[in-house]
């Protein structure tokens, strides 16, 4: 085989030297505190069987989409599922993409224009940042969840630019994937209304977690009509694959015409879209898993307080709980100890997070028992303080 160019080999070697080298994990049968399967839908035999039955009942026996949605891949299940999503999320329309990454890249690379300004939270996901890099708009990051800093950026742009921006896009997440915290959405909506900004919220880690039926944080607060676009990702709480952008009919029409990650890719298979549809039906009918998840989040927060672990953790009421343990080598060693004791807890290393902000990331699920939660926190305490 032909070897890598030296410049690439050097980059890999530097990663190894910094204890930041990534490897694909080997599956081990450990207690799950690492996956994004918050409600256990990915493991649900019920959803698996219902999806299969739905396909057979509707005589859908096709393995692939056969092409992009604009050519041959727009099978009838897309329309049915998008209508269900729009109704569930109280949105005018929904447009399904192949993944959350595709949705964010497609949106941010096509919607903001050359004379526009994008202001995004400094901790926004890589897919958002990659989409912004592909845009012709100017972009600036604001300090994490700091709306005074955001307002200052808005006013500075209005005062210093020779020609006023056509449009401001304000971008954040309702639950941040590496901290598990959330912005004050009501305050953010008020700020956007004050300056006539277009608000875009990624709800990837809120779907299935917040709201009576897991509808997401914005909708649980009755703010869904105050935003320009919501991005819903199905690979977390919904336990399957794909994503949708929620918004107006005009926005959907625009994305179908200009979002390259939508236009130039083979669509999802009928089976994938059917799984999304059935998972949403289970969100509506199965409240037990959502309530169990909420109880586990509350129990985790109570236990970390009782064990004097709270100062280590980022404040979070979500299913993502992060203990800051600076240093790649140290956090990897503690993660290894937890795994050796039967708990699948992953270390998040720099450069994924800033240097000095390395952490253990605990993902909570409806199927975790209170004993498992207590035991993993006891083991964390032993590993850190002994």
Molecular structure report:
This protein is of the alpha/beta class and 386 residues long. Helix 8 links the parallel strand 6 and strand 7. The N and C termini lie far apart (48 Å). The mean pLDDT is 95. It folds into two domains: 20-38 and 287-385, Alpha-Beta Complex (Aspartate Aminotransferase, domain 1), CATH 3.90.1150; 46-285, 3-Layer(aba) Sandwich (Aspartate Aminotransferase, domain 2), CATH 3.40.640. The chain has 14 helices and twelve strands. Helix 3 (76-88) packs parallel to helix 11, helix 4 (100-110) runs parallel beside helix 5 and helix 12 packs parallel to helix 14. The protein is 43% helix and 14% strand. The strands form three sheets. The chain has a seven-stranded mixed sheet with strand order 2-8-7-6-5-3-4, sandwiched between helices. Strands 9-12-11 form a three-stranded antiparallel sheet, covered by helices on one side. Strands 1-10 form a two-stranded parallel ribbon.
């Amino acid at each position: 085989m032909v070897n890598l160019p030296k410049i690439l080999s050097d980059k890999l070697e530097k990663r190894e030297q910094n204890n930041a080298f990534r490897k694909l994990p080997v599956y081990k049968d450990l207690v799950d505190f690492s996956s994004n399967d918050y409600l256990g839908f990915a493991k649900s035999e019920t959803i698996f069987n219902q999806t299969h039955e739905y396909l057979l009942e509707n005589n859908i026996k096709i393995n692939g989409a056969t092409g992009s949605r604009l050519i041959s891949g727009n099978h009838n299940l897309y329309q049915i599922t998008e209508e269900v999503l729009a109704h569930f999320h109280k949105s005018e329309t929904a447009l399904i993409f192949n993944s959350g990454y595709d949705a964010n890249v497609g949106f941010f690379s096509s919607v903001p224009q050359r004379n526009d300004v994008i202001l995004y939270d400094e901790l926004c996901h890589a897919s958002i940042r990659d989409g912004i890099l592909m845009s012709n708009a100017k972009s600036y990051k604001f300090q994490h969840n700091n709306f005074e800093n955001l307002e200052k950026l808005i006013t500075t742009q209005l005062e210093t630019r020779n020609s006023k921006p056509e449009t401001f896009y304000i971008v954040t997440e309702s639950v941040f994937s590496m901290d598990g915290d959330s912005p004050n959405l009501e305050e953010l909506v008020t700020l956007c209304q004050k300056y006539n900004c277009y608000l875009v919220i990624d709800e990837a880690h809120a779907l299935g977690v917040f709201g009576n039926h897991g509808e997401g944080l914005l909708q649980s607060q009755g703010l869904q009509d105050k935003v320009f676009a919501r991005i819903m990702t199905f690979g977390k709480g919904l336990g399957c694959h794909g994503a949708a952008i929620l918004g107006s009919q005009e926005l959907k029409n625009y994305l179908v015409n200009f979002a390259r990650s939508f236009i130039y890719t083979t669509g999802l298979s009928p089976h994938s879209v059917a799984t999304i549809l059935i998972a949403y039906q289970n969100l509506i009918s199965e409240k037990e898993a959502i309530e169990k998840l909420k109880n586990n989040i509350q129990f985790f927060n109570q236990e970390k307080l009782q064990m004097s672990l709270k100062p280590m953790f980022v404040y979070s009421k979500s299913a993502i709980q992060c203990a800051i343990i600076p240093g790649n080598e140290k956090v990897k060693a503690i993660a290894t100890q937890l795994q050796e004791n039967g708990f699948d807890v992953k270390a998040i290393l720099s450069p994924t997070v800033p240097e000095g902000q390395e952490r253990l990331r605990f993902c909570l699920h409806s199927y975790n028992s209170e004993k498992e939660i207590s035991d993993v926190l006891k083991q964390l305490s032993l590993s850190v303080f002994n």
